[in-house]
Amino acid sequence: MAGKRQFDERRTLELARDIFWAKGYGATSIQDIANASGVLRGSLYNAYQDKETLFLQVFEDYARDFLAKAARVLADPDVDRALRAFFDFTITSMTTGEPARGCLTTKTAIDSKADGERINAALRRLLDGLEHLVRDRLSAEDTRLALPAADAARVLVTMTRGIVVMERVYQDPDRLRATARSLIDVVLAGQRRAVPNRR
């Protein structure tokens, strides 16, 4: 039937995701994905036109799954537990594998070969979506926050990018979790502010 994929698309996209994640966008070729999946290179080109379009399909699936999982861990009614679970989720994701696979979003963002506007837009959508989830979770916690919910969300999401680099250097998940806990304590310091002494 015209237009029908002649291969298992879900399996192929999952294999492609793992290769992009391990090698990076620039170092991955369509042939690498063909070799891993057993799908002919010509069939991949027919289905996706080029490597960028294939990557964008892979990344769209990855982003949807990542944001859904982030939303679940942030749903904890206790905000401190929710934020700790959020960082635990992101740290576990980036430290999975041997060697640790890192973060697909950050790895792509710093890849000089992945500088197309469509890829940049996809990265922004994921990070904006993540920031939106965190901001919504914090919006009911104004009395506990040391800064406005939108600012706190941006700081927390930015930290999830920074710990990717620290993981690469130190390869110590416990260190990353301790750093995340310190930031959470700062963000939730609103209710613990000392009342200034009056003279």
CATH topology: Tetracycline Repressor, domain 2
What CATH first level would be assigned?
Answer: Mainly Alpha
Tally of helical runs: 9
CATH architecture: Orthogonal Bundle
The profile of the biggest β sheet is: none
- Structural class from helices and strands? mainly alpha
How much helicity do the residues have?
55-70%
Domains (count): 1
Uncertain runs with pLDDT below 50, 5 residues or more?
193-199
Mean pLDDT: 92
How far apart the termini lie comes to 84 Å
Name the CATH superfamily assignment: Tetracycline Repressor, domain 2
Strand tally is: 0
Shape: elongated
The topology string of helices and strands comes to HHHHHHHHH
From the alpha carbons, calculate the radius of gyration and give it in angstroms: 20 Å
Strand content: under 5%
Short description:
The protein is mainly alpha-helical and 199 residues long.
